[in-house]
Protein backbone atom coordinates (compact mmCIF):
# COMPACT_ATOMS: atom_id res chain seq x y z
CA UNK A 1 0.00 0.00 0.00
CA UNK A 2 1.47 3.33 -1.01
CA UNK A 3 0.55 6.99 -0.73
CA UNK A 4 1.45 9.63 -3.31
CA UNK A 5 0.69 13.36 -3.57
CA UNK A 6 1.07 16.15 -6.12
CA UNK A 7 -0.40 19.60 -6.60
CA UNK A 8 -1.97 20.99 -9.75
CA UNK A 9 -1.31 24.69 -10.34
CA UNK A 10 -4.17 26.58 -11.92
CA UNK A 11 -4.92 30.13 -12.95
CA UNK A 12 -8.56 31.11 -13.21
CA UNK A 13 -9.42 33.77 -15.80
CA UNK A 14 -12.93 34.81 -14.75
CA UNK A 15 -14.93 35.27 -11.56
CA UNK A 16 -16.72 31.95 -11.79
CA UNK A 17 -15.03 29.20 -13.76
CA UNK A 18 -15.21 25.44 -14.13
CA UNK A 19 -11.62 24.23 -14.65
CA UNK A 20 -11.53 20.67 -16.04
CA UNK A 21 -8.66 18.88 -14.28
CA UNK A 22 -9.55 15.30 -15.31
CA UNK A 23 -6.48 14.74 -17.50
CA UNK A 24 -4.12 16.25 -14.92
CA UNK A 25 -5.55 13.99 -12.20
CA UNK A 26 -5.17 10.91 -14.46
CA UNK A 27 -1.55 11.92 -15.20
CA UNK A 28 -0.84 12.00 -11.46
CA UNK A 29 -2.48 8.59 -11.04
CA UNK A 30 -0.17 7.33 -13.82
CA UNK A 31 2.92 8.75 -12.10
CA UNK A 32 1.87 7.25 -8.75
CA UNK A 33 1.98 3.75 -10.20
CA UNK A 34 -1.18 2.85 -8.23
CA UNK A 35 -3.36 0.26 -10.02
CA UNK A 36 -6.08 -0.31 -7.40
CA UNK A 37 -6.95 2.46 -4.98
CA UNK A 38 -8.51 5.88 -4.77
CA UNK A 39 -7.69 9.52 -5.38
CA UNK A 40 -8.62 12.43 -3.15
CA UNK A 41 -9.06 15.74 -5.01
CA UNK A 42 -9.03 18.61 -2.51
CA UNK A 43 -8.97 22.43 -2.74
CA UNK A 44 -7.09 24.27 0.04
CA UNK A 45 -9.08 27.46 -0.58
CA UNK A 46 -12.25 29.04 0.85
CA UNK A 47 -13.81 30.26 -2.40
CA UNK A 48 -13.40 27.13 -4.52
CA UNK A 49 -15.05 23.71 -4.66
CA UNK A 50 -14.78 20.35 -6.43
CA UNK A 51 -17.50 18.96 -8.71
CA UNK A 52 -17.74 15.91 -10.96
CA UNK A 53 -20.09 16.03 -13.94
CA UNK A 54 -20.39 16.36 -17.71
CA UNK A 55 -18.11 18.94 -19.37
CA UNK A 56 -20.84 20.39 -21.54
CA UNK A 57 -20.75 24.18 -21.63
CA UNK A 58 -24.52 24.72 -21.63
CA UNK A 59 -24.94 22.40 -18.65
CA UNK A 60 -22.25 24.29 -16.73
CA UNK A 61 -24.13 27.53 -17.48
CA UNK A 62 -27.34 25.94 -16.20
CA UNK A 63 -25.62 24.99 -12.96
CA UNK A 64 -24.11 28.46 -12.53
CA UNK A 65 -27.57 29.96 -13.01
CA UNK A 66 -28.93 27.72 -10.23
CA UNK A 67 -26.07 28.76 -7.93
CA UNK A 68 -26.62 32.45 -8.68
CA UNK A 69 -30.31 32.07 -7.86
CA UNK A 70 -29.55 30.37 -4.52
CA UNK A 71 -26.66 32.70 -3.64
CA UNK A 72 -27.23 35.99 -5.50
CA UNK A 73 -24.24 38.24 -6.10
CA UNK A 74 -26.36 41.36 -5.60
CA UNK A 75 -27.62 40.43 -2.11
CA UNK A 76 -25.97 41.97 0.95
CA UNK A 77 -23.31 39.84 2.66
CA UNK A 78 -22.10 40.83 6.13
CA UNK A 79 -18.75 39.26 5.29
CA UNK A 80 -18.20 41.99 2.70
CA UNK A 81 -18.35 44.61 5.48
CA UNK A 82 -15.84 42.55 7.46
CA UNK A 83 -13.44 42.59 4.51
CA UNK A 84 -13.90 46.36 4.06
CA UNK A 85 -13.06 47.05 7.72
CA UNK A 86 -9.88 44.97 7.85
CA UNK A 87 -6.76 47.12 8.17
CA UNK A 88 -4.49 44.64 6.46
CA UNK A 89 -4.61 41.36 4.61
CA UNK A 90 -7.86 42.21 2.86
CA UNK A 91 -7.93 42.27 -0.88
CA UNK A 92 -11.09 44.39 -0.90
CA UNK A 93 -13.14 41.81 -2.73
CA UNK A 94 -16.87 41.54 -2.03
CA UNK A 95 -16.75 37.78 -1.99
CA UNK A 96 -19.27 36.74 0.67
CA UNK A 97 -21.29 35.07 -2.06
CA UNK A 98 -18.21 33.15 -3.26
CA UNK A 99 -17.63 31.59 0.17
CA UNK A 100 -21.29 30.57 0.42
CA UNK A 101 -21.21 28.91 -3.02
CA UNK A 102 -18.00 27.07 -2.08
CA UNK A 103 -19.47 25.67 1.15
CA UNK A 104 -22.48 24.33 -0.77
CA UNK A 105 -20.21 22.52 -3.24
CA UNK A 106 -17.69 21.14 -0.72
CA UNK A 107 -13.88 21.00 -0.70
CA UNK A 108 -13.24 17.44 -1.83
CA UNK A 109 -14.31 14.43 -3.84
CA UNK A 110 -12.87 10.90 -3.78
CA UNK A 111 -12.76 8.78 -6.95
CA UNK A 112 -11.84 5.08 -7.12
CA UNK A 113 -8.96 3.85 -9.32
CA UNK A 114 -9.32 0.55 -11.20
CA UNK A 115 -6.49 -0.99 -13.26
CA UNK A 116 -4.66 2.34 -13.10
CA UNK A 117 -7.58 4.39 -14.43
CA UNK A 118 -9.98 6.79 -12.70
CA UNK A 119 -13.42 5.17 -12.44
CA UNK A 120 -15.23 7.79 -14.53
CA UNK A 121 -17.84 7.11 -17.18
CA UNK A 122 -17.53 8.77 -20.58
CA UNK A 123 -19.37 11.96 -19.58
CA UNK A 124 -17.84 12.45 -16.12
CA UNK A 125 -15.17 15.10 -15.68
CA UNK A 126 -13.51 16.44 -12.53
CA UNK A 127 -13.72 20.20 -12.08
CA UNK A 128 -11.97 22.61 -9.76
CA UNK A 129 -14.62 25.32 -9.53
CA UNK A 130 -13.53 28.93 -8.97
CA UNK A 131 -16.02 31.30 -7.33
CA UNK A 132 -13.78 34.32 -6.77
CA UNK A 133 -11.43 34.58 -9.74
CA UNK A 134 -9.30 35.47 -11.43
CA UNK A 135 -6.56 34.08 -9.15
CA UNK A 136 -3.61 31.72 -9.01
CA UNK A 137 -4.81 28.53 -7.34
CA UNK A 138 -3.74 25.00 -6.57
CA UNK A 139 -5.49 21.67 -6.01
CA UNK A 140 -4.09 18.79 -3.92
CA UNK A 141 -4.30 15.31 -5.47
CA UNK A 142 -3.53 12.44 -3.12
CA UNK A 143 -3.56 8.77 -4.08
CA UNK A 144 -3.74 5.75 -1.79
CA UNK A 145 -3.56 2.20 -3.09
CA UNK A 146 -1.56 -0.72 -4.43
CA UNK B 1 -3.70 -2.83 5.17
CA UNK B 2 -5.93 -4.11 2.40
CA UNK B 3 -8.12 -2.66 -0.31
CA UNK B 4 -11.31 -4.30 -1.60
CA UNK B 5 -13.90 -3.22 -4.19
CA UNK B 6 -17.31 -4.37 -5.41
CA UNK B 7 -20.14 -2.84 -7.40
CA UNK B 8 -23.80 -2.78 -6.46
CA UNK B 9 -26.18 -3.12 -9.41
CA UNK B 10 -29.37 -1.10 -9.12
CA UNK B 11 -32.44 -0.45 -11.21
CA UNK B 12 -34.35 2.73 -10.49
CA UNK B 13 -38.09 2.62 -11.10
CA UNK B 14 -39.03 6.31 -11.09
CA UNK B 15 -37.54 9.63 -12.18
CA UNK B 16 -36.34 10.61 -8.71
CA UNK B 17 -35.71 7.82 -6.25
CA UNK B 18 -33.85 7.28 -2.98
CA UNK B 19 -32.42 3.73 -3.14
CA UNK B 20 -31.37 2.50 0.30
CA UNK B 21 -28.10 0.58 -0.15
CA UNK B 22 -27.09 0.37 3.53
CA UNK B 23 -27.44 -3.42 3.81
CA UNK B 24 -25.62 -4.03 0.52
CA UNK B 25 -22.72 -1.82 1.64
CA UNK B 26 -22.51 -3.64 5.00
CA UNK B 27 -22.51 -7.00 3.15
CA UNK B 28 -19.52 -5.84 1.10
CA UNK B 29 -17.75 -4.69 4.28
CA UNK B 30 -18.39 -8.20 5.67
CA UNK B 31 -16.93 -9.87 2.58
CA UNK B 32 -13.89 -7.56 2.66
CA UNK B 33 -12.92 -8.86 6.09
CA UNK B 34 -11.92 -5.29 7.11
CA UNK B 35 -12.45 -4.62 10.84
CA UNK B 36 -11.01 -1.10 11.14
CA UNK B 37 -11.07 1.20 8.14
CA UNK B 38 -13.38 3.14 5.89
CA UNK B 39 -15.68 2.66 2.94
CA UNK B 40 -15.99 4.93 -0.07
CA UNK B 41 -19.43 4.90 -1.71
CA UNK B 42 -19.22 6.46 -5.18
CA UNK B 43 -21.57 6.84 -8.17
CA UNK B 44 -19.95 6.78 -11.64
CA UNK B 45 -22.90 8.66 -13.16
CA UNK B 46 -23.74 12.32 -13.87
CA UNK B 47 -27.37 12.31 -12.77
CA UNK B 48 -27.04 10.49 -9.43
CA UNK B 49 -25.69 11.39 -6.00
CA UNK B 50 -24.97 9.83 -2.59
CA UNK B 51 -26.75 10.91 0.60
CA UNK B 52 -26.76 9.64 4.18
CA UNK B 53 -29.81 10.28 6.34
CA UNK B 54 -32.92 8.79 7.92
CA UNK B 55 -34.93 6.39 5.74
CA UNK B 56 -38.28 7.93 6.62
CA UNK B 57 -40.51 8.35 3.57
CA UNK B 58 -42.02 11.69 4.58
CA UNK B 59 -38.57 13.15 5.22
CA UNK B 60 -37.37 11.99 1.80
CA UNK B 61 -40.40 13.72 0.27
CA UNK B 62 -39.54 16.90 2.17
CA UNK B 63 -36.00 16.82 0.81
CA UNK B 64 -37.23 16.19 -2.76
CA UNK B 65 -39.55 19.19 -2.43
CA UNK B 66 -36.58 21.37 -1.39
CA UNK B 67 -34.55 20.12 -4.36
CA UNK B 68 -37.42 20.76 -6.78
CA UNK B 69 -37.74 24.29 -5.43
CA UNK B 70 -34.01 24.99 -5.89
CA UNK B 71 -33.78 23.23 -9.26
CA UNK B 72 -37.27 23.30 -10.85
CA UNK B 73 -38.09 20.73 -13.51
CA UNK B 74 -40.19 23.27 -15.44
CA UNK B 75 -37.43 25.87 -15.80
CA UNK B 76 -35.50 26.11 -19.05
CA UNK B 77 -32.14 24.32 -19.16
CA UNK B 78 -29.73 25.05 -22.01
CA UNK B 79 -28.39 21.51 -21.65
CA UNK B 80 -31.74 20.18 -22.84
CA UNK B 81 -31.22 22.01 -26.16
CA UNK B 82 -27.74 20.46 -26.39
CA UNK B 83 -29.23 17.00 -25.97
CA UNK B 84 -31.91 17.70 -28.59
CA UNK B 85 -29.31 18.83 -31.14
CA UNK B 86 -27.00 15.83 -30.78
CA UNK B 87 -27.02 13.57 -33.81
CA UNK B 88 -26.13 10.45 -31.89
CA UNK B 89 -25.65 9.24 -28.37
CA UNK B 90 -28.49 11.34 -27.01
CA UNK B 91 -31.34 9.60 -25.32
CA UNK B 92 -33.60 12.61 -25.83
CA UNK B 93 -34.12 13.18 -22.12
CA UNK B 94 -34.62 16.72 -20.81
CA UNK B 95 -32.36 16.11 -17.86
CA UNK B 96 -30.56 19.41 -17.29
CA UNK B 97 -32.28 19.65 -13.92
CA UNK B 98 -31.10 16.10 -13.01
CA UNK B 99 -27.44 17.02 -13.56
CA UNK B 100 -27.82 20.19 -11.46
CA UNK B 101 -29.41 18.26 -8.58
CA UNK B 102 -26.63 15.63 -8.75
CA UNK B 103 -23.85 18.25 -8.56
CA UNK B 104 -25.45 19.76 -5.45
CA UNK B 105 -25.56 16.37 -3.72
CA UNK B 106 -22.08 15.17 -4.74
CA UNK B 107 -20.77 11.85 -6.08
CA UNK B 108 -19.34 10.27 -2.95
CA UNK B 109 -19.47 9.82 0.80
CA UNK B 110 -16.92 8.10 3.07
CA UNK B 111 -18.04 6.20 6.17
CA UNK B 112 -15.74 4.79 8.88
CA UNK B 113 -15.77 1.07 9.76
CA UNK B 114 -15.40 0.04 13.42
CA UNK B 115 -15.15 -3.63 14.51
CA UNK B 116 -16.39 -4.66 11.07
CA UNK B 117 -19.50 -2.47 11.15
CA UNK B 118 -20.33 0.79 9.35
CA UNK B 119 -20.29 3.67 11.84
CA UNK B 120 -23.94 4.63 11.38
CA UNK B 121 -26.38 5.53 14.11
CA UNK B 122 -29.79 3.88 14.23
CA UNK B 123 -31.47 6.39 11.92
CA UNK B 124 -28.68 6.77 9.36
CA UNK B 125 -29.03 5.05 6.01
CA UNK B 126 -26.91 5.29 2.87
CA UNK B 127 -28.81 6.21 -0.29
CA UNK B 128 -27.92 6.13 -3.96
CA UNK B 129 -30.14 8.93 -5.23
CA UNK B 130 -31.46 8.74 -8.78
CA UNK B 131 -32.40 12.03 -10.50
CA UNK B 132 -33.01 10.76 -14.04
CA UNK B 133 -34.65 7.34 -13.78
CA UNK B 134 -35.76 4.85 -14.52
CA UNK B 135 -32.40 3.35 -15.51
CA UNK B 136 -29.99 0.49 -14.79
CA UNK B 137 -27.25 1.88 -12.54
CA UNK B 138 -24.29 0.83 -10.46
CA UNK B 139 -22.49 2.14 -7.40
CA UNK B 140 -18.81 1.52 -6.56
CA UNK B 141 -18.04 0.48 -2.98
CA UNK B 142 -14.36 0.52 -2.04
CA UNK B 143 -12.97 -0.44 1.35
CA UNK B 144 -9.54 0.38 2.81
CA UNK B 145 -8.42 -0.91 6.19
CA UNK B 146 -7.11 -3.70 8.38
CA UNK C 1 0.67 2.44 6.50
CA UNK C 2 -1.38 2.86 9.66
CA UNK C 3 -4.94 3.69 10.58
CA UNK C 4 -5.98 5.62 13.68
CA UNK C 5 -9.36 6.78 15.00
CA UNK C 6 -10.69 9.02 17.77
CA UNK C 7 -13.97 10.73 18.53
CA UNK C 8 -14.47 14.38 19.45
CA UNK C 9 -17.26 14.99 21.98
CA UNK C 10 -19.21 18.18 21.43
CA UNK C 11 -22.13 19.95 23.03
CA UNK C 12 -24.02 22.40 20.88
CA UNK C 13 -25.61 25.36 22.68
CA UNK C 14 -28.03 26.70 20.06
CA UNK C 15 -30.29 25.35 17.31
CA UNK C 16 -27.87 26.10 14.49
CA UNK C 17 -24.21 26.33 15.37
CA UNK C 18 -20.85 26.18 13.60
CA UNK C 19 -18.47 24.35 15.98
CA UNK C 20 -14.82 24.91 15.00
CA UNK C 21 -13.02 21.58 15.51
CA UNK C 22 -9.81 22.41 13.59
CA UNK C 23 -7.52 22.33 16.65
CA UNK C 24 -9.05 19.08 17.95
CA UNK C 25 -8.57 17.42 14.56
CA UNK C 26 -4.93 18.58 14.41
CA UNK C 27 -4.37 17.22 17.96
CA UNK C 28 -5.65 13.81 16.82
CA UNK C 29 -3.36 13.94 13.77
CA UNK C 30 -0.48 14.67 16.19
CA UNK C 31 -1.39 11.69 18.39
CA UNK C 32 -1.69 9.40 15.35
CA UNK C 33 1.94 10.02 14.44
CA UNK C 34 0.97 10.13 10.75
CA UNK C 35 3.21 12.47 8.68
CA UNK C 36 1.85 11.85 5.17
CA UNK C 37 -1.76 10.81 4.73
CA UNK C 38 -5.31 12.03 5.09
CA UNK C 39 -7.96 12.56 7.70
CA UNK C 40 -11.64 11.71 7.36
CA UNK C 41 -13.96 13.92 9.45
CA UNK C 42 -17.39 12.31 9.69
CA UNK C 43 -20.61 13.00 11.65
CA UNK C 44 -22.67 9.93 12.66
CA UNK C 45 -25.84 12.04 12.96
CA UNK C 46 -28.76 12.95 10.66
CA UNK C 47 -29.07 16.64 11.56
CA UNK C 48 -25.40 17.67 11.37
CA UNK C 49 -22.91 18.25 8.58
CA UNK C 50 -19.22 19.01 8.00
CA UNK C 51 -18.00 22.23 6.34
CA UNK C 52 -14.58 23.74 5.73
CA UNK C 53 -14.30 27.51 5.40
CA UNK C 54 -13.23 30.76 7.04
CA UNK C 55 -14.12 31.12 10.74
CA UNK C 56 -15.40 34.67 10.37
CA UNK C 57 -18.64 35.21 12.28
CA UNK C 58 -20.30 37.48 9.72
CA UNK C 59 -19.56 35.00 6.94
CA UNK C 60 -21.09 32.16 8.97
CA UNK C 61 -24.21 34.31 9.44
CA UNK C 62 -24.33 34.93 5.68
CA UNK C 63 -24.20 31.19 5.03
CA UNK C 64 -26.90 30.48 7.62
CA UNK C 65 -29.11 33.07 5.96
CA UNK C 66 -28.66 31.30 2.59
CA UNK C 67 -29.53 27.95 4.18
CA UNK C 68 -32.63 29.39 5.86
CA UNK C 69 -33.75 30.81 2.53
CA UNK C 70 -33.33 27.45 0.75
CA UNK C 71 -34.77 25.41 3.62
CA UNK C 72 -37.10 27.70 5.62
CA UNK C 73 -37.89 26.78 9.20
CA UNK C 74 -41.47 28.06 8.86
CA UNK C 75 -42.37 25.84 5.87
CA UNK C 76 -44.37 22.66 6.43
CA UNK C 77 -42.34 19.43 6.65
CA UNK C 78 -44.14 16.09 6.44
CA UNK C 79 -41.40 14.61 8.60
CA UNK C 80 -42.60 16.78 11.50
CA UNK C 81 -45.98 15.01 11.36
CA UNK C 82 -44.15 11.65 11.36
CA UNK C 83 -42.31 12.67 14.53
CA UNK C 84 -45.55 13.85 16.18
CA UNK C 85 -47.29 10.52 15.47
CA UNK C 86 -44.54 8.29 16.81
CA UNK C 87 -45.54 6.50 20.01
CA UNK C 88 -42.01 6.21 21.33
CA UNK C 89 -38.51 7.31 20.55
CA UNK C 90 -39.59 10.72 19.30
CA UNK C 91 -38.23 13.77 21.00
CA UNK C 92 -41.07 15.91 19.64
CA UNK C 93 -38.76 18.18 17.70
CA UNK C 94 -39.97 19.73 14.45
CA UNK C 95 -36.68 19.09 12.74
CA UNK C 96 -37.60 18.25 9.14
CA UNK C 97 -35.74 21.38 8.06
CA UNK C 98 -32.64 20.29 10.03
CA UNK C 99 -32.41 16.97 8.17
CA UNK C 100 -32.78 18.75 4.80
CA UNK C 101 -30.02 21.23 5.65
CA UNK C 102 -27.75 18.35 6.77
CA UNK C 103 -28.23 16.40 3.52
CA UNK C 104 -27.27 19.48 1.48
CA UNK C 105 -24.05 19.91 3.47
CA UNK C 106 -23.01 16.23 3.57
CA UNK C 107 -21.69 14.00 6.36
CA UNK C 108 -17.97 14.02 5.66
CA UNK C 109 -14.92 15.84 4.36
CA UNK C 110 -11.43 14.45 3.73
CA UNK C 111 -8.33 16.64 4.27
CA UNK C 112 -4.76 15.72 3.28
CA UNK C 113 -1.95 15.64 5.87
CA UNK C 114 1.53 16.91 4.89
CA UNK C 115 4.53 16.71 7.23
CA UNK C 116 2.17 15.98 10.12
CA UNK C 117 -0.03 19.04 9.50
CA UNK C 118 -3.53 19.37 8.03
CA UNK C 119 -3.32 20.92 4.57
CA UNK C 120 -5.36 24.02 5.40
CA UNK C 121 -4.60 27.56 4.34
CA UNK C 122 -4.65 30.33 6.92
CA UNK C 123 -8.37 31.05 6.59
CA UNK C 124 -9.63 27.46 6.39
CA UNK C 125 -11.26 25.94 9.45
CA UNK C 126 -13.09 22.64 9.89
CA UNK C 127 -16.62 22.92 11.31
CA UNK C 128 -19.04 20.39 12.71
CA UNK C 129 -22.31 22.13 11.89
CA UNK C 130 -25.32 21.55 14.17
CA UNK C 131 -28.79 22.03 12.66
CA UNK C 132 -30.92 20.72 15.53
CA UNK C 133 -29.27 21.78 18.79
CA UNK C 134 -28.74 22.01 21.56
CA UNK C 135 -27.53 18.40 21.93
CA UNK C 136 -24.59 16.25 22.97
CA UNK C 137 -22.84 15.14 19.80
CA UNK C 138 -19.73 13.42 18.56
CA UNK C 139 -17.61 13.50 15.42
CA UNK C 140 -15.45 10.61 14.14
CA UNK C 141 -11.91 11.49 13.04
CA UNK C 142 -10.06 8.73 11.19
CA UNK C 143 -6.51 9.01 9.87
CA UNK C 144 -4.81 6.84 7.23
CA UNK C 145 -1.17 7.29 6.30
CA UNK C 146 2.50 6.79 7.04
Describe the protein's topology.
The structure is a homotrimer of 146-residue chains.
Chain A: E1 2-11, E2 17-20, H1 22-32, E3 37-42, E4 48-53, H2 57-70, H3 78-85, H4 96-105, E5 108-114, E6 117-118, E7 125-130, E8 136-145
What brief labels describe this structure?
8 strands, 146 residues, five-stranded antiparallel β-sheet, three-stranded antiparallel β-sheet, homotrimer, alpha+beta, elongated
Describe the model.
The structure is a homotrimer of 146-residue chains. By secondary structure, chain A is α+β, with helices and mostly antiparallel strands. Chain A is 29% helix and 35% strand. Chain A contains four helices and eight strands; from the N terminus they run E-E-H-E-E-H-H-H-E-E-E-E. In chain A, the strands form two sheets. A five-stranded antiparallel beta sheet of chain A has the order 1-8-3-5-6, covered by helices on one side. In chain A, strands 2-7-4 form a three-stranded antiparallel beta sheet. Chain A is elongated. The termini of chain A are close together. The model of chain A has no long low-confidence stretch (mean pLDDT 94).
In terms of DSSP E residues, the strand content of chain A is 25-35%
Tally the beta strands of chain A.
8
Q: How would a textbook summarize the main sheet of chain A? A: 5 strands, antiparallel
Oligomer: homotrimer
- Helix segment tally of chain A: 4
- Rg of chain A to the nearest angstrom? 17 Å
H/E topology pattern of chain A: EEHEEHHHEEEE
C-alpha end-to-end distance of chain A: 5 Å
Amino acid sequence: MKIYKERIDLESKSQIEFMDITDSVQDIVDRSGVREGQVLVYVPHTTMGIAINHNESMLLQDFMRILYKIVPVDAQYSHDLFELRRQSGSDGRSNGHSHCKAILLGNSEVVPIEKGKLVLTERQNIFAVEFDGSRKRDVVVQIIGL
